[in-house]
Write a structure and sequence with these properties.
Length: about 210
């Protein structure tokens, strides 16, 4: 694809963007911003975006991504509960930002691997009969990384930002190829914000690197 063709496809995609996609994108960006600030609004605002993208993903045969947004919706409610849970004696929140130990990192990699295998297998089977436009390996990779990132964000684990960086990097071309140009731009913004979020959370817990 030449630069001219890329720009033309980008402009065409943005022109074809629906109002629903705009709303989903803007609330999604706002949600990531609140997450970076460790603000509880990450969850109610994020729920608006995830529900919209469940519909968009099904419509675009991005079945793995659709499963991600369903998972996001469930985990948003779970994370909302965890983030607001307070100690009865001090009346302060019980969950704080922390870095994963070696055992937890291994568990996270295993969780990612299991999610990838399950999603890839399901998409490969669905592609034959129900979703010929699906891209199993790419969709499964982005989806599995997102599953891992959302799980860790609910637990306020620093490493959630690393998984979001992986997810967003994979999702930019995935959505662009599917014709959702504005959403692919959203993931580019998410990528930059994930990097900023990693720096911000590292600063909050006073570490300079992740082993």
């Amino acid at each position: 694809m030449t630069l001219h063709q890329f720009i033309q496809q980008l402009v065409t995609g943005i022109q074809a963007t629906s109002a629903l996609e705009y709303i989903g994108t803007l609330t999604g960006i706002a949600s990531v911003w609140f997450s970076r600030k460790e603000n509880i609004l990450v969850y109610p605002v994020g729920l608006i975006s995830t529900i919209i993208y469940i519909y968009i993903s099904f419509k675009g045969s991005l079945l793995g991504e659709a499963s991600v947004y369903i998972y996001y919706t469930i985990m948003s409610i779970y994370g909302w509960v965890l983030w607001t849970r307070k100690d009865t004696t001090s009346n302060s929140t019980t969950l704080h930002i922390s870095s994963s130990n070696k055992k937890e990192k291994i568990q996270q990699l295993l969780f990612f691997a299991v999610c990838f295998i399950i999603i890839f297998t399901c998409l490969s089977l669905l592609k034959k009969s129900f979703a010929p436009d699906a891209i199993p390996w790419a969709d499964a990779f982005a989806s599995a990384a997102a599953y891992t990132g959302m799980w860790l964000m609910a637990k306020k684990k620093l490493e959630n930002w690393l998984w979001w960086i992986v997810t967003n990097t994979a999702s930019i071309p995935l959505y662009f190829i599917k014709g959702y140009a504005f959403t692919s731009i959203q993931f580019l913004v998410f990528l930059v914000m994930a990097m900023a979020g990693l720096i911000e959370w590292k600063r909050r817990i006073g570490i300079s690197n992740i082993e």
